[in-house]
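User: I'm putting together notes for a lab meeting next week and I want to include a structural view of one of the chains we've been expressing. I don't have a solved structure, so I'd like a prediction I can at least talk through. The sequence is below, exactly as it appears in our construct file.
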Amino acid sequence: MTRTSPGVKRIAAILDFLADHPTQSFALTDLVRALKLSRATAHALLTGLVEVGYLYRTGDKTYVLGPALARVGRAAAQNMSPLQVAQPEMRALADEFDVVCSAFFLEGDTIVSRERAASISHVGYSLPLGTRIKLMPRSLPTFFSWQPEEARERLDRAQPPVSAGQREQIEAAMQFVRDNGFAVMMRTDDAGRQPDSLEAFGSEADRPVTILSAISPTETYAVSAVIAPVFNGHGRIEFVISLMGFTGPLTGAQVSAAAEDLKAACHRIGAFLA
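Assistant: Thanks for the context. Below is the predicted structure for the 274-residue chain, given as structure tokens.
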């Protein structure tokens, strides 16, 4: 791992300190004391940051955040998207596992496809970006495993009503997702059908899939999707990333291996958000 240079760390410390106190200004001696810097080092860094506009030196010789840094901050706030960070991760996953890798956001009771990367085997994948899919009870574990009370409330008001057996399966699947950090959807029809597209059925409700509550390393599964969450800085799911369109059945060990790579990518994206 590349180590951050001491100079960069000191500059970041100065900017972070002033950003944490945006309504205050600080003299050189204040920053020296607060950040444990030598007076000479602090003076040199502050002078350089003032010259490039990242800090401003007021008439009473104190320092505040500068106009150039404000422009940088506005640009980042207006244009920052987790999908910019997710795109290369999704491309790598799609190519590694020869699948379609999609990012799905939850808007109310609707799942929305916002980004996609397809391997060469799936360049004709037919589910367009922006597709809106009604959130089904079986999909609750992918978005609400870390909010079980909200999941139960949604199950209570589901239409048509969820049977006791379905509810038990969904609760078990949520526990699996919490324990393992990913969800697995398995086909219950033709394992060889490719790609796994909604167009073949007309709606999400028609798809012959079930969510698993356990996997065995040696058992074989007709996997429809492996899904993992991306958490934001508040510990809530920002969106989920799904691997779909596997070219054949997978063993439980292969499912877990794909899930670990997917989880690692989601963690890196979440670190950016946090």
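A couple of points you could mention at the meeting. The longest strand covers residues 110-118. The chain has nine helices and twelve strands.

User: Perfect, that's what I needed.
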